[in-house]
Design a protein that fits this description.
By secondary structure, the protein is an alpha+beta fold. It has 4 domains: 38 residues; 181 residues, no CATH class; 90 residues, PDZ domain (Pdz3 Domain, Roll), CATH 2.30.42.10; 313 residues, 2-enoyl-CoA Hydratase, Chain A, domain 1, CATH 3.90.226. It has 20 helices and 22 strands. The strands form 5 sheets. A 7-stranded mixed β-sheet has the order 20-17-16-13-12-11-22, sandwiched between helices. Strands 4, 5, 6, 7, 8 and 9 form a 6-stranded antiparallel β-sheet that branches. Strands 2, 14, 15, 18 and 19 form a 5-stranded antiparallel β-sheet that branches. The two termini are 52 Å apart.
């Protein structure tokens, strides 16, 4: 595809003839917008007409992106901006930024004014004897008429936050006094003062963060608003966000291996990754504050009050290079630490494997948890989930497990090809998924005739299982190769690809990097021809969870692609005429109907739905305390839900050599022990093991010729 660079350059000449620093910014914006427009026009699966309807959708989305909680703009601002309500289509086509520039000017002005609102409101004690209420659902409130009414809303919001802290602190004081008579009781006034100070500190930090907004932050909001009508998953990624995305999906980065946050203007260490350069060097500790960063022996750069992403960029760097950190310890002492950067592995990204023994039947089952279908897209030899899962299955076979539970709960997707390869571990040759681009349908097949595991297989999904998770679960379901348990999945039936904008522009190094566009170019379909789009994957055995009565999924997003279906492709079902599928399902449903955990879970799900639907709260202390006390009393009934230790034993199975760094680290050991505790108290997993045992008993998945 050839980008029309001549058109862009001509446009830029008309906009800004002189080439100052500001013109570089204008040039960059214009390149990004025009490149994105050409890309969506040419390869997006959903061809959108750029007209007044497009403009209105973009306009409303941008206001949400910019001021979702309606805390900054007033009605006159909306009226001013509304001049462009039906002009953004023209701005997009012509590469103009009048609306964006106006909105940027307005929002920064209103943010500055809001600093006075919160500081003034928190100067004096609140009156919690007055009967009044606050609506917290932003869809139920309008833009405030003027600055005076907006300041009153800020006052109410801050009063509510302070009230919540006051009540929490009073309850904590009561509990402390019950344990000890020596606890000094604070007055309501003292507690209220402390609560206001805490809220003030929170908003000081928040406004410090907002004050570091840059042009590029607001510009990405604007560009993504223009993409809203295409679908929920087409998105512009500025360079930093694309880098973070790659790290999440690959589970690797080059740096020092410390998790950082910004607290009170300081870059603070919140975690050290086991096996990382910081962990090996040993001097950097949690709660250390980073004051300066130097590249080797170069002059250090002060990072106090610096944006977190900019400080992180200084600290990260190529493997083998030296970074020097000037840090402040918790006791106030300072020192300089030299760390040699290296490849850092984020273990939580990767698959984890266990052997679980059901003490009731004395049978061993394999358990594999896959958090995402990860792959290192920048390194063909990098770590991939398909290789890790294959190794895990081999290890579980060596341990003579009698069934495998494959957990895809909360797995939002990832690499399509790795998903196909993992499906191929459990079936012979055959199609796994169909992918449609425009009018062309391509069938992706299992590329390996071998079957790594032909025994009982249970796949666990929930409402957050999406994309590649749905492809895998649907394929196993259509082949009748596995029993799928859980809730209806998310319903994301589309395929995205990243387009590097830099690669489409020759030269122009002054404006690079430009970032990347994640664009929806295909829809995927089950081998039976149906789509998971909007509908998701319906489990063979439905399970009650705490979100049972809360609407969730692709259908709740704005402007999702439609559901559709295509012709089924030819595939051979995993035949076994002797298997009584209905009995397996009914046995499980019968067990769950009598299990106190699932009975109480249903009650808790109804409670959560009721609480979620209530968005109006009292600001009178007595009324608020009564409401919260009642809510806490109801919640107390369920506090021990899912905490009972079940009649199973779990042992972590280390599969990948890279994960062995964690075995001797105290933090990792603590994390692994916590995971084991989660597993042996997981009633849904326990029921999956029971289903696996039923499948084993009926010999459902092993082929007759075996």
């Amino acid at each position: 595809m050839k980008i029309k660079v001549f058109f862009i350059c001509a446009l830029l000449f008309l906009v800004q003839p002189c080439y100052s620093q500001s013109s570089i910014e204008i040039t960059r914006d214009a390149y990004i917008q025009n490149l994105i427009k050409e890309l969506v026009d040419e390869i997006h699966i959903n061809q959108v007409t750029i007209d007044d309807s497009f403009s209105e959708v973009s306009f409303n989305a941008y206001l949400k992106n910019l001021d979702y909680y309606k805390r900054f703009f007033i009605q006159s601002d909306i009226d001013t901006l509304s001049h462009y309500r039906h002009l953004l289509d023209d701005q997009f086509k012509e590469g103009k930024f009048d609306f964006f520039n106006l909105s940027q000017e307005l929002i920064l002005k209103r943010i500055k004014e809001a600093e006075n609102y919160y500081k003034n409101a928190l100067k004096e004690p609140f009156n919690f004897d007055k009967e009044e209420y606050i609506q917290l659902n932003v869809d139920s409130i309008s833009w405030e008429k003027n600055k005076e009414t907006l300041e009153k809303r800020w006052y109410q919001l801050l009063k509510y936050e302070t009230l919540a802290r006051v009540h929490s602190d009073i309850e904590a004081q009561k509990k402390a006094k019950e344990k000890s008579d020596t606890v000094k009781e604070k007055s309501f006034s003292e507690i209220e003062t402390k609560a206001r100070e805490s809220v003030l500190k929170k908003y000081n930090n928040w406004f410090d963060f907002i004050s570091q907004w840059e042009h590029n932050d607001l510009f990405s909001y604007y560009i993504n608003s223009l993409l809203t009508k295409y679908d929920p998953h087409t998105e512009y990624f500025p360079p930093k966000e694309k880098e973070d995305f790659d790290i999440r999906f690959s589970g690797q980065l080059q740096g020092i291996g410390a998790t950082l946050s910004q607290r009170d203007g300081y870059i603070t260490v919140v975690d050290i990754i086991p096996g990382s350069p910081s962990w090996r060097q040993g001097d950097l500790e949690v709660n250390d504050k980073i004051l300066k960063v130097a590249q080797g022996a170069e002059e250090p750069v002060d990072v106090v009050e610096m944006r977190l992403d900019k400080a992180v960029k200084l600290i990260r760097g190529p493997k083998g290079t030296e970074v020097r950190l000037t840090i402040q310890k918790i006791d106030g002492t300072q020192k300089t630490i030299k760390i040699i950067r290296d490849l850092v592995v984020i273990a939580e990204t990767y698959a984890k494997t266990m052997i679980i023994t059901d003490n009731e039947t004395d049978k061993k089952f394999g358990y594999i948890y896959l958090p995402s279908f990860y792959a290192n897209f920048n390194d063909p030899r990098g770590r991939r989930c398909s290789k890790d899962i294959a190794d895990a299955v081999e290890k579980l076979k060596d341990e003579n497990v009698e069934g495998i539970v494959f957990d895809l709960r909360n797995n939002t997707g990832g690499s399509l090809m790795d998903c196909i390869d993992i499906a191929g571990l459990f079936i012979e040759t055959g199609p796994v998924v169909q992918v449609k681009s425009s009018n062309i349908v391509r069938v992706y097949n299992d590329r390996d005739a071998d079957i790594l595991w032909d025994g009982p297989l249970v796949v666990m999904i929930n409402q957050s299982s999406a994309s590649a998770s749905e492809i895998f679960a649907a394929a196993m379901q259509d082949y009748k190769r596995a029993i799928v348990m859980g809730t209806n999945s998310f319903g994301k039936g589309s395929v995205q690809r990243f387009e590097d904008l830099d690669a489409r522009v020759q030269g122009m190094n002054d404006i690079k990097p430009l970032g990347a566009l994640k664009i929806t170019l295909q829809k995927f379909y089950r081998v039976n021809g149906g789509s998971t789009q909007l509908k998701g994957v319906a489990p063979d055995i439905p399970v009650t969870t705490m979100y049972k009565y809360i609407d969730y999924g692709e259908r709740e997003l704005e402007h999702p692609l439609d559901w559709s279906e295509i012709k089924a492709t030819k595939y051979d079902i995993w035949k076994n005429d002797t298997c009584d599928w209905e009995t397996i399902k009914n046995n499980s449903l019968e067990r769950m109907s009598k299990n106190p955990f699932f009975i109480r879970m249903d009650e808790n799900a109804k409670r959560l739905k009721k609480n979620r639907d209530n968005t109006v709260y009292p600001l009178k202390y007595k009324d608020y305390a009564s409401y919260i006390d009642k809510a806490n009393e109801e919640a107390e009934k369920f506090k021990d839900l899912g905490t009972d230790t079940l009649d199973i034993e779990a042992v972590i199975l280390t599969v990948n050599e890279e994960d062995k760094n964690e075995e001797s680290d105290t933090t990792a050991i603590e994390r692994n022990n916590k995971w084991i505790k989660q597993i042996i108290t997981d009633d849904i997993l326990y029921e999956a093991l029971k289903v696996c045992n039923d499948v084993l008993h009926l010999d459902c998945f092993r082929k007759p010729e075996d």
